[in-house]
Amino acid sequence: VSTTPRVDIIMRTKNRPQFLARALDDILAQEYPHWHLIIVNDGGDPVQAHVAQRPGLDGRVTLLDLPESLGRGGAVMPGIEAGHAPYIAIHDDDDTWHPQFLTRTIQHLRSTDDVAVSVRTQIIWESPALQETGRELFHPFMQEPTYFDLLRFNHVVPISLLYRRTVHDVIAINSELRSVFDWDVNLQLWRLGSVGFLDGEPLAYWHQRRSADGDAANSVIAEPDSHYLHDRRVREKALRRVTHDGDLLFLTGFVDDRTQDLSARLDRVEAQFDEILRRLRG
Amino acid sequence: VTAVDIIVRTKNRPQFLARALDDILAQEFTDWHLIIVDNSDDPAETQALVDARGFGDRCTVLSQPDPVGVPALSNLGIKAGAAEFITIHDDDDTWHPQFLTRTTQHLRSTDDLAVAVRTEIVWETTDLQETGREVFHPAMQEPTYFDLLRFNHMVPIGIVFRRSAYDDLGPFDERCEVVDDWVFNLSLARAGGYGFLGDEPLAFWHQRPDATGDAGNTVIDKRHLHIRDDRRVRDRALREYVDEHGPGGLLYLAKYIDERTGDLHGRLDRIEAQQGEILRLLHELTQTADTLGRIKRRVARLRP
After folding, report:
1. Does a cis peptide bond (omega within 30 degrees of 0) precede residue B171?
2. Alpha carbon A20 to chain centroid distance?
3. Residue A130: is it exposed, middle or buried by C-beta count within 10 angstroms (0-12/13-18/19+)?
4. In principle, which of A13, A81, B133, B234 could form an S-S bond with A93, CB 3.0–4.6 Å?
5. Minimal CA separation from B176 to chain A, in Å
């Protein structure tokens, strides 16, 4: 594998060796060979041994040891800056790909002008010991992720995305946004140009652990407060830039009035049901 | 040059086309030219249907055997004509005999860019037997941009527009597979251009709920494409808006409405739980009543 790498795979990890082992094996299982792996050890215990154990990684890995943890958002930028390949994928240490993820997404970016491409994604539920407990499609009713969808919430997780390095000429990663930094990037990415979508068989697997906390946790599950706070901050920053707020003040009051009407109806329905329950219980 | 170009797009359904050709020949108004854009696999079949009806030089057949989209077929047909007024007569739909008389009269006596008519849905089987009728959007008093923002309220069979409006606001958007007529209607309505003949239905939109493939209706058979293209149209307009005004207001409204409706969902969750509890208690009551009934019957048997 002597060719210049076409894709930099950024992998953040911190003190979860069992995840890292699975993620490294997952990358070695990719059919597409011209990648370079950049591991960002986010202030955790050394990971060199995991790399050394796998001869397939020889000469294909850059290891960045951050002296102290910068968090999910903070660790990704040093990884990106350490590489030079024209395409970038962010492969978190707990997620996995279909063996053809890189083959298919790179083929797409080579044959179009799209700034990025995302893929149909499956959620894999697992125990903290990484035993699979179930699977479901992520947003099965979504035909393709649009900017329209993104305004509500993030519909595309990092494991599902391959994008061109050139987008960073325009888009910076805001690491202070912690677990919503990827949504913030997507909001900018989707405005920058067209983003392709590979539908059909899922090519990315977003692993989630309902019951884990600490190092083994998923940020969206373990940090709901942080998610709420940073989601608000993204919107707040954009909102303060609006030049007129007459329409927003009107619509806010209007939607409030209309939902209060519905709420008053529900008050009556709830009271009736309470009465029915009271009589049934005698 | 005639007053009206009638564009008929057709593909592999000669029994529909035959009905559409007879329908056009039944129009009271005769100053029209028919342009058939034929996307069929067998152009000879289409030509035979035309020849059998003696259209003479009142009909042009454009053969387009390539698998191009519906909007491209419309644009091809329109560009082949020169009439002041244009109407798209889908090969499966029909008109009232006075459709062209009344719509051209309206456009000649107003400045409206287009005119739409009250339209009736005709339900039919795949072999074209009528099974029922209903008026399409009976409550609609006139076509508005307001209503169109939500969804399309008008179908091509019920519309005549000026060629000058098409030159200004067209062509039909070839990026769409299915909702190109909605996009064009949005532009026309936004320009304030729609008149409406709202009394007796003058256009008949034929629908076959059971059909698929060549005989299918796109709104029924290709529902997923409608959902996808609807979203794409809104997404393109949204990006243009945000490029000009920034995303702040809409990022706010999206979340605000999400949270307000989220509150209501929370209320409904509780009400659903109450309902579940009521059903459970009713079930218990019914069982108790059954038991009581059995005991009563036994007691009755025990009586001397």
Report:
1. yes
2. 17
3. middle
4. A13
5. 15
